[in-house]
Amino acid sequence: MANRINGSMIAIVILSAAVGAGIAMAVVRSTTAPASGPARTSDGKPNFSGIWQANNEAHWDLQAHEARAGAVTQSGVYPAYDFASVPAAPVLALGAAAGVPGSLGVVGDDGEIPYKPEAAAMKKENRANWIDRDPELKCYLPGIPRAMYMPYPFRIDQSTNKIQMAFTFANAARTIHLDKAEGPPDDTYMGHSVGHWEGDSLVVDVTGFNGKNWFDRAGNFHSASLHLVERFTPISANAIRYEVTIEDPEVFTRPWRITMPLYRRLEPNIQLIEYPCIEFAEEFLYGHVRKNQLVKRWEGETMIIDITRKVPPGDRFFEWYRK
Amino acid sequence: MLEATETCKNKEPACSGGKYGPPSPKRAEMPPFYNTGRINRNDGPEDRSMTERCMGALLPDFGGYRRIVQSPGSVSIFYDTGQGQGWQRVIPVTASPHLPPSIRERFGDSRGRWEGNTLVVDVTNFSPKFSYRGAREKLHLVERWTRLDATAIEYSVTIDDTTTWIRPWTVKQELIRQDEQANRIYYEPRCHEGNFGLPTMLLGARAEERAFARGAGPDPATKDTATDFGNEGGADVLTGNGGGIF
After folding, report:
1. pTM for the complete prediction?
2. Parallel, antiparallel, or unpaired: how do β-strands B65-71 and A13-15 relate?
3. What is the CATH number of domain B65-176?
């Protein structure tokens, strides 16, 4: 274990293009983009450097879905009708801020995810047990492609032989190797990404997953056999068409696709602001082993959260309505 | 048998065969500031060190590997440091001002500029929740990254906090380019994903309390759970940030 600072152990991997006598760190220089075309690097490739974000509902559910009353719902007075569900206890106190927006979905072709029968059953079970199973709620590394369309900005830094992506959520990162790079010796959450250019498209082959990630908050999942082929193609200076072909013979009967635009964040002062969710998730993960429980308590295997709303003076519903 | 160990040579309490004095009356008190080290208490995650909570990494960082990828206007550095506690850093190379003082970040807010061949990075807006040798939100770093040749960078960082040190001080180190094939490392900080240690330590403390309550064990308050058993842990709560991995 590296317990002490030791000069001989300190090392770096520097990834830059040319290293000339007078050049400190070579960079890929951007050229001025035409008004409508994408920014380009000095070697003519589309330049994806910048801060980007998906602007859709794929993080809730890749597939087309109606809006829902809550991220967690339970049967209402019409138990037979899903559409009459009401928000369940974990989100009820947040009212209409805790619902799920509807979406046309991002799954290509017929919009179906071609699960094998046993995997379809698992997906259904995942969704029913979302709070206990979704790795996002635990602040685990989000994996690819999920990290690409979570509702947080991410940064791309594009050099000639490496492209680094820095994600807000969980401080996650991925490196796309444009040069030869063997994968790590074991499976990973974020996968091993190897890219090449096909015209104006950056095509990235991603393997080496550990199978612990989901695609969304709807229980869509994959195994360690996941293989992705991503295509990043410029639509304009400020938008990228992001397409992924998803293959996993353990879970799906055939490859399937998702497609969405990624948008440049245009605020002149945009920067990533940390979302330190390890500490945010501690109460969620470890609250039950506190000496004095703060928010939740356990009775056997049942977690109990008492929600007590204390309405401030003057804010009772009818008083607020008259204001 | 214990006599030959470092624990006994250094006359640490763990050598004394479990005979400890009465628990300090201060044991139940709130720490004077947000705790980042080990303390002799296990009431909740906040009583454990930042390292045990998988938040041990700090800036400045002097260990491990870095992957640097740069583009015009930005330098991205991934720090593969600690035990799966690495982190991704983005340095905007911009003349725009730092974040407003109301926004505090664990690794601070970096602003880079070029001075000739040297990337100079000013780092402020550190969080009071983390401690670099006692410096918290007033920590101010000025880093200088200079490419010496094809395989080396000189890294120098001037560390300042007038409430912690009497004057700024500077650390310099040389960073050597590594062979990527020879260092096929994970670049993936996944301490948190496998952190069974933290809840297990807390569960253990709860079990000890229950055993004490039924007369089957010692009062946990009389047991030492914070002694430094060598490099592995026990950083000084006043000066360090938890275990000794950095």
Report:
1. 0.87
2. parallel
3. 2.40.128
